[in-house]
Amino acid sequence: MAAPAKVSAPLTPEQIAIVKSTAPALKEHGEEITTMFYRNMLAAHPELRDIFNTTSQQTGAQPRALASAVFGYASYVDDLGKLSDVVARIAHKHVSLMVAADQYPIVGEHLIAAVAAVLGDAVTPAVAEAWTAAYAALADIFIGLEGAMYAEHERSAAGWNGWRKFKIARKVAESAEITSFYLEPADGQLPLPDFQPGQYVSLHLHIPELGCLQPRQYSLSDVSGLGHYRISVKRDAGKQAGVPGLISNRLHRDFNEGDVVEITQPAGTFFVDAAKVGAQAPITLISAGVGVTPMVSILNAHVAAGSTRPVSWVHGARSTEVQAFAAHVRGVCETHPEVKATVFKNRVADAEVQGVDYHFTGRMDLAKVDREQGLFLDNAEANYYICGPPVFMKEVQQWLVKEGVCDSRIHMEVFGVGDGE
């Protein structure tokens, strides 16, 4: 899978100027362009349907996300350092889906064609040439990053490339909506590659009615070194996107202990980076709903390492019935005084005790969380990890920035739209 990166000629100043000048048009017509791109590319290359999320195509979420990414690239084509985090996140996603170097020209051909079709006469030969060069330069970056990751997998004694069969060793209900699947390698070959707490695996299933495979990303919800991987999946009824989760419902309904699924090696850029976050710097884990899953991995890794780092757990749930890992988190807090929890619930039962089962009712309001031990707002080294619905994450980010937290200390788990179904 690893391939040497082709090095395209650098963009000329004139090409950079042209690409930047087209950014406003791309912002205005981006969704129309990307919708046409996906439709035409998948019609011409149906084999790529195994990679792209059909649900996100149906809801329009994936075209919107790509339109935003294309606009961002056009805006910063002369300063790609500002997009380094985004590029790394996308590269990890591509590797988790086994994207190949020879697929980039296909994407480029159809993307440039869609730009030309939508913008019409505005796409002069010079504009087309500039965008072709810009896409080639970006493709080189991704092919190089992803090739290095594939090569690292091949060098690792425990790693692998491609989709690997795993047996469901245990299936455990964590709440009325979330179920954990304990996955062991079907070939029995151990050890498994270690992963950073907070990372994810891709899992795919064949969908007969679509005639293709469909992949999804699921956060690993426990620590490395256990001889298995654990994912904790929410059964998605489709209340937000209007389309029930294609994969999650099948996993809950049709897959049981002893059944086999296929996953790729762990990937992702959402984790506590020891190189950037001091060993004793406090962290706050802020989640809502199924966003709890990478946070449990981070929390369990903290406990397993014997760390004394101050940790604040801030979680929002609709009710006790749908709140996963509640007893586990309470137990950690009871035995680890450096870990503090604040739980918000929209609905509470009469038997629930405030201060034990929950702390506040209603939607999460960070202004109610203890400033010193819950948010560490007066500590310039504190870092914040956020996972949940996109609107929730954006609101939390904006609140933290307003309170004086710099963006470099705010980390969000941003899956591709439609992931985790």
UniProtKB/TrEMBL annotation:
Alphabetically, the GO molecular function entries are: FAD binding; heme binding; metal ion binding; nitric oxide dioxygenase NAD(P)H activity; oxygen binding
CDD domains, from UniProt? FHb-globin, flavohem_like_fad_nad_binding
Q: Which InterPro entries does the UniProt record give?
A: FAD-bd_FR_type, FNR_nucleotide-bd, Globin, Globin-like_sf, Globin/Proto, OxRdtase_FAD/NAD-bd, Riboflavin_synthase-like_b-brl
Q: Which residues form the FAD-binding FR-type domain?
A: 161-273
Domain Globin stretches: 10-147
Catalyzed reaction equations: 2 nitric oxide + NADH + 2 O2 = 2 nitrate + NAD(+) + H(+); 2 nitric oxide + NADPH + 2 O2 = 2 nitrate + NADP(+) + H(+)
Q: What is its EC number?
A: 1.14.12.17
What keywords were assigned to this record? Detoxification, FAD, Flavoprotein, Heme, Iron, Metal-binding, NAD, NADP, Oxidoreductase
> Which enzyme class, named as a word?
oxidoreductase
* Cofactor(s) listed in the protein's UniProt record: FAD; heme b
Query: Which GO BP annotation is one of this protein's?
Result: nitric oxide catabolic process
> In terms of domain of life, where is this protein from?
Eukaryota
* Keyword Cytoplasm tagged: no
Entry function: In the presence of oxygen and NADH, it has NADH oxidase activity, which leads to the generation of superoxide and H(2)O(2). Under anaerobic conditions, it also exhibits nitric oxide reductase and FAD reductase activities. However, all these reactions are much lower than NOD activity.
**Which family, according to UniProt?**
In the C-terminal section; belongs to the flavoprotein pyridine nucleotide cytochrome reductase family.
**Which NCBIfam families does the record match to this protein?**
PRK13289.1 (NF009805)
Listed name of the protein: nitric oxide dioxygenase
User: What is the species of this protein?
Assistant: Apiospora kogelbergensis
